[in-house]
# Entry
Amino acid sequence: MRYAILSDIHGNLEALETAVAYAGDQLVDLWVVLGDTLGYGANPNECFEWVLQNAAIHVAGNHERAVLDPRIRQWFNPEARAAIEWTGKILDDKFKMQIPALADTAQTPDADFCHGSLHEPGEFHYLFDYADARPTFAKMSKAVCFAGHTHVPGCICENDQSSRDLEPGILKLETGKRYVLNPGSVGQPRDGDVRLALGIYDHAAAVFEIARLEYDNVKAADKIRRAGLPRFLADRLL
# Structure
């Protein structure tokens, strides 16, 4: 089974279309979205519609929950709060109705999936290192868990008690070891590389690929500005 692992699309249609075109050429069997399809970007309806129609696994991120729950917005910085309030105003009601049904976590025979962590998924913890991930390892039912939220591609290994950011390329997973793997962000990378990030997981081959792709980030940023969203959200795409 080959999985396309997408996370943190954040309303960035230009990045999503590029990611989908790449993953589609990789003969993937299953599309997975790890949440935060909404927020920040100017095309929440188009991105959310694609995810609803195509992702076999689709878990909720904090930005999806925040559309309907103002209490979650209190955790957001001012720019993120302004963006999710704008998103809530323009998101089609038919999509808003789908948000409560989104699960916090999911699994297949091959892997666990969440937005922030398997441990207290509704709290949206960030998993940057082994110490952060220990409660998630305790909850894992599989050898691999995919999590997003940090916007940085990464690998945390329970057996080695190690963590590291992942560069573009293929990571070979070792038999008998357990991992939390992060595909990075499609729509809002935050690791100093403006290219979008996504993951391809091949369960049979036990490999995880991080792909970094250029896309029309200038167009995506311009749409954010024209929508009247905080300029900072556009500038950090460039």
